[in-house]
Amino acid sequence: MVALAAAISGAYLWRSTHHGTNSVATKKKPAVTRLHPPGPIPGYLLIADRGNNRILLVNSSKHLFWSYPSPGAHTAMPFRFDDDTFFGPKLNRIISNQEDQNTIQIISFPGRRILWRYGHVNVKSSATGYLNTPDDAYLLPNGLVTVADAYNCRILFLDHAHRIVRQYGTTGVCKHNPPTGLGAVNGATPLPDGGTLISEINGSWVDDIAANGKLRWALQAPVSYPSDPQLLAPNRILLADYARPGHAIIMTRTGHVLWRYGPSSGPGALDHPSLALRIGPGLIAINDDFRHRVVIVSIKTRHIVWQYGHTDVPGTSPGYLHTPDGMDLLRTADARRMPALRALLSPTRRGAHTATPSPATGAPVRVRAAGYRLAAPVQREVAAAYGSAALVAGGLDAAGSSTNGVFRLDPASGALKALGSVPEPFHDAAGAFIGKRLFVFGGGAGHSSSSIQAFDLATRRGAVVGHLPHALSDVASAASGGTVYLVGGFDDHTPRGEIYATTDGTRVRLAGRLPHGLRYAAVAAQAGRLVIAGGIVGTAPSPNVYAFDPASGRVSLIARLPVAIAHASAVALGGAVYVLGGIDASGQTVSTVTRVDVGAGTASPVAATAPVADAAVAYLPQEALLIGGRRSGRAVRDIRVIRAR
């Protein structure tokens, strides 16, 4: 198996390789350096989301960079049941065959303009200009289009003027006798030497027809329904078995199976996989159509190492698919060569959307609505526990104005009582309860502030009681062992990397430094250490999770979040830290809850959701409250209860 994996990893796969802020970019830092998508996908995956009538372009972190049609856009031609989708040789075209619509379209990429079409919408025919259930359309380097015209039992080669310039099979004669006769065809993969690798449904035939139209070989594949054969090497063919349970196999041209994936049951089982594609060394991507996902399987371990879509759950929301039926790979090296694609795929590009990762089962925490709400929306406020109650102060109201009120929230009844105010309205501050006073560190209204404000619960009066070493907003905090730590922030000019500590609220000292400036991070204390997750580095959200050890003053990278986020909240419960909600690179609110295990150095999503950002956290006995925040750009009144199971 190791020898096979190595051979396939180094083999030539034509289908995967035939493609050919306000700052100003300089020669010192070209835009190309920004394209470093994470693994395991060596670039970006184009998915034909057939049941949702759309095409998606995603990376390993499940960022959605591009789709067709644009949401809500009117298209010049209907786009329904897109069975397959492939890049053209120059990457500036995408060809899609709409199987049940009986059409082919070529659209510009990333421009989305329809450049060429063939077939008549919703009309099956064998007449000139018509198709009958087209499958596997490709745009060839010589400008021709090839398509498996499935139930006309033929392979067509079409020129720009819609003329048939070559044909394999005889129209309407559905009988295996290649090249003049073919059964119903569902695959016609171009080969690097100009030949075509064809799959026939009836009889499970796979045929290799040379560029001169002569049959080189034909075999009956050891599967029930062969789909979309791919040439990996001169005597290595990758093939999907469109069945339940389905399979992906690697075989020789005599039908000897060298590798097979296809559990008979369980989460790894396949249900009518339509395409298997080698995307990288030792990795096979598979369209698992009826389980509504695309998976990547390790050749060596025969286990799923990545998937897009939620198993057995069709949907249209980010991260979901409905009967995906085709895919293609856009390699990073190829994308880097094209300015339009570098701009599209830049990690800081506005409009990129992040999918919600598929959660693990058996969530160790429960997130639920509290059963009551705030009297008015608020975001970016501070909160702290006060006995069995919670204190809430400041923040942005529904109009986006900074406030300075201090309130007591009774978790038993949901009653909210006004206690008074602090002198300076603020948002984006850090807060902590020390002694009998609520302290507010920094924040600001129009500008960042260095003020330390305190609200005395005994006198119900607020005052400015000190100052930070410099103005600081967008700062996070957590308490551990009687010490409050202030992490990162923004001084109106640059993100800050300091970690400050205070025990009395008025005097602060430098306790450590982050590797870089960081603002809007999620911070919680667990087992004597601070967990610092996400936040904004420069102008982009970060996936990094750091641990800060107050004893040594050291900061270490311990894990990476499934998705780069900022403006999230964090709570420590049940021996772990949970990062809730936040904002992704596209500015969208995410609902993911991620469990960070400091000891194991892992960060993984759990089966809970918290679709909110910029919410405040207050710890109560046995649980925590997630208060206010924003969703879709608007402040909310919501209160959520987080409790360890």
Major pleated sheet: 5 strands, antiparallel
Q: Which stretches of 5+ consecutive residues score pLDDT under 50? A: 1-33, 356-362
Main sheet: strand order: 24-1-2-3-25
Output the number of helix runs. 4
Fourth-level CATH superfamily of the largest domain = TolB, C-terminal domain
CATH-defined fold name of the largest domain: Neuraminidase
Distance between the termini: 43 Å
Which CATH class of the largest domain is shown? Mainly Beta
**CA-atom Rg in angstroms:** 29 Å
Question: What would you call the structural class?
Answer: mainly beta
Percentage beta strand = over 45%
What is the count of β-strands? 52
The mean pLDDT is 89
Q: Choose one word for the global shape.
A: elongated
Q: List the domain count as a whole number.
A: 2
Helix content: under 10%
CATH architecture of the largest domain: 6 Propeller
